[in-house]
Specification:
Largest sheet of chain A: 11 strands, mixed
CATH architecture of the largest domain in chain A: 2-Layer Sandwich
Oligomer: homodimer
Number of domains of chain A: 3
Shape of chain A: globular
Largest interface: A-B, 61 and 61 residues
Strand content of chain A: 25-35%
Strand order of the largest sheet of chain A: 3-7-8-14-11-10-9-22-23-21-20
Structural class of chain A: alpha+beta
CATH class of the largest domain in chain A: Alpha Beta
């Protein structure tokens, strides 16, 4: 275990990419798999994912959605039925061609997303307006053959996500569903992961392959690159027509249904690492931290027993307040080594207890986000820890909001746009005439894309940052993961 | 929805296979997917699976295991490293050969089980005796190309399961882990699913491909065929050697580790359907039923409002006791139609309330397992429902134990063995000399295999049922799913 003692050697501000990799690997969130772009999700990362699952399940089950599971393998003839959809996904599909020694009669896609296979069921299940809305969600793995720019959690050949797939009688109901879910995502990402986001629509060029329109949550990473944190799509009747999802309305007339799909993935784990982590390592927001506090008994020689006993009492006091804590009583490590280890792994609060503290009926309490320490009455340890966890959660979001604000810049003109992008990245707020041509030229010349067209537009729209014609919308450009 | 009204048309005792398919499909547990042997797990089935996950997670997390997630795709060179393992799985592996248009340099297996890919990580993670035991589990999908005898939940090309993979310093610790998990499985399967099982070891011929030994839980289905409900394997050092899982012991000496693996799958859903279902449809054991009770308000014309209000009060009273209930107030269905529907879908308890009941401050309460109805005081409805759910849970297990007892038969001689197997199936208890040859001949001649060698052996072992030589062990033969 000696390699751990050195901790994170890269600095977040100096070499962000190397820093990220070290935090993920040394912080034991993930390790690289034998196939390019695959990782193992280690216990802490998976527990964060389980927290996310629990929070989001509470929201969607409470609003009438139900969890289900659909097949991984999709026959090629199904996947290719909606033309824009397959064009978007074709380059990254893993194809199964053999079962044992037998060549299959038709190639099977390993799902890159599940619209097509799910709609093959929905076309059987939806008959009448009474069957609508159909509100289903699945938690599963999806695969996309990524050969470049892979990065644990952020971009890989396999990731975990939820994908919701709903069917509605009218476009309005589909619109409402899209916005309801986007709002849930905003709560999940901001209130639980403490990752602030901009929300709005995607441009035609950037929307989901096959969608009527796409709404998105966009976060900004410390290196100036945007990260799409989740999307919620109104698919219109683009899929219900080729897949034959029809229902008899209340006048007994056959209608094509309106469908939506929406997803967030384990990418969110990458976002929280990038945003909250520091040079000591990971910082996990308390609400999704599997272990909220670590208790380190400090003693020399044979003083250990009463201190460890006290540590157990504290753990039990925390447990009564619903605070999951861990005691680190390993006898082959110094307190300093343990401190570094738990800081690297991002545990929000540390409680230190030694013979001197015990005599004074005190403990030392340390918060991971600011690295502040203070001595408190032992009798109030549970209450103090609960308050501290709340405060850390709030502080992480405040800090991240400040960073986002600093990284959101109004571009005066295209020269300024390019200069800012080159020097510091971030979201470049500007006017856009709405033409795909300007958007495409900017992408080609700078690598930046329209990340989001905010729902709330300013009253005055600046002229198009590229062509100078009258602006139609304010948009946020950025380079992105 | 008119096709539902007809309910289950096949009789469990007349055409078990057709009855099972109807219960699964009409009861809306599953529907057939576009690829042979794949299904969609519909909301009720998936909710049962989530109940199973919750119960088993509580057991394993409480005993120090942690959940993780490993990659789906396994390079061919890894999968083939342990020879017996690949021989066992080769015929059913789905192979990925292309990513987009690019032919891959090496074929990738879609995991049929994950020992090999997991051990590629473990060989990096395990260094010292201090890293042991390593106790990890994953909930995931696995794929096996099944082309014949596919049956929803029971045998398919894709299923959901958990697979635990642990590493230990000694064979004793691995033995203990294998038995600890087997005991958890027994509690899960008997106390939650109300499916009684025989437990013991597999013969060499029937053990997991690559295992040192396999322990198993075997259930008996009503048609006389056994169903393997779960397995827990000691893999010895069979995998740690080819995969290089070594640790430095307390004397700083390098040792190969001992590993175990264990799993239960969505097959358990199939088992509970087969065992508890009846000619009206599904019967879900209360402990795993997502909806414990359905409340049906009964009224004519304009009497509805107070009855529906009362139904809501009852739902709320049940909710306070933690009993999830559903009100069926649809106005386009008769009470009788609703009764059939909810019975078909296996909801454990039904509460009927009409104007006459309200006047008398009573409700009618119906139990799905015995189809008994009684009138009770409305004020005691939550308590009565809770007691009834308990009683149904117990009764289902008692009934299933009686059935298992009747289906476990001591075979006097080989002629009797064959006659019984042909006439009624079931577990055939008999002596076995321990030779693979006798076991193989019986399989060839009758289709029956040794399902389990019970841990608790009788004092007197009968002679081998096949060769008549001295019996070494008592074993249970059966034909199996």
């Amino acid at each position: 275990m000696s390699e751990k003692q050195e901790g994170i050697t890269a600095k977040k501000n100096d070499d962000f990419s190397e820093w990220y990799t070290q935090v993920v690997v040394k912080g034991e969130l993930a390790d690289y798999g034998p196939v390019q772009g695959t990782i193992a999700y280690r216990p802490t990362a998976y527990a964060i994912w389980e927290s996310i699952q629990k929070q989001f399940n509470d929201m969607i089950i409470g609003s009438g959605h139900r969890n289900v599971y659909f097949p991984l393998l999709i026959p090629e003839s199904l996947l290719t039925r909606e033309k824009e959809h397959i064009e978007g996904f074709a380059p990254e599909v893993f194809w199964v061609t053999h079962g044992g020694d037998n060549k299959l009669s038709e190639r099977l896609a390993v799902r890159p997303t599940s619209e097509t296979v799910i709609y093959s069921f929905y076309s059987k299940w939806v008959r009448s307006w009474r069957d609508l809305p159909l509100l289903l969600n699945q938690w599963c793995n999806v695969l996309r053959a990524e050969i470049k720019s892979t990065k644990p959690f952020i971009r890989g050949s396999e990731f975990l996500w939820q994908e919701g797939h709903t069917v509605h009688a009218t476009v309005n109901e589909a619109d409402e569903e899209v916005m309801r879910i986007l709002e849930y995502y905003k709560i999940l990402v901001e209130d639980y992961l403490a990752v602030p986001v901009l929300i709005g629509k995607k441009s035609e060029r950037e929307k989901f392959a096959g969608a009527f329109y796409t709404t998105t949550l966009e976060a900004m990473m410390p290196d100036g690159k945007a990260l799409q944190a989740g999307t919620s799509h109104n698919l219109g009747q683009n899929f219900s027509k080729p897949f034959g999802i029809q229902f008899l309305d209340q006048n007994n007339k056959s209608q094509y249904a309106w469908t939506t799909s929406w997803g967030v993935s384990t990418r969110l784990i990458g976002a929280l690492v990038m945003i909250h982590g520091d040079d000591r390592g990971l910082v996990i927001p308390p609400k999704v931290a599997p272990i909220k506090a670590v208790i380190v008994p400090i003693y020399k020689g044979n003083e250990g027993e009463p201190v460890v006993k006290k540590a157990n009492e504290i753990k039990s006091a925390l447990g009564k307040h619903g605070i999951a804590a861990l005691i680190d009583a390993r006898d082959d490590r110094t307190p300093g080594w343990k401190f570094s280890e738990h800081e690297m792994k991002g545990i929000p609060v540390r409680i230190e207890i030694g013979p001197k503290d015990m005599k004074e009926k005190k403990v030392v309490i340390f918060r991971r986000d600011t690295a502040e320490k203070k001595s408190i009455e032992e009798s109030s340890v549970a209450k103090a820890t609960a308050e501290l966890l709340d405060d850390i959660q709030k502080n992480l979001l405040v800090r991240a909001r400040e960073a986002l604000k600093k990284q959101t810049i109004e571009a005066k003109d295209y020269a300024d746009f390019k200069k800012t992008l080159e020097e510091r990245g971030g979201f470049l707020k500007c006017g856009w005439c709405g033409s795909d041509k300007c958007e495409g030229s900017i992408k080609e010349e700078t690598g930046a894309t329209i990340r989001v067209i905010p729902f709330e537009q300013d009253k005055k729209i600046p002229d198009c940052i590229y062509c100078g014609k009258q602006g139609k919308e304010i948009v946020y450009f950025a380079r992105a993961y």
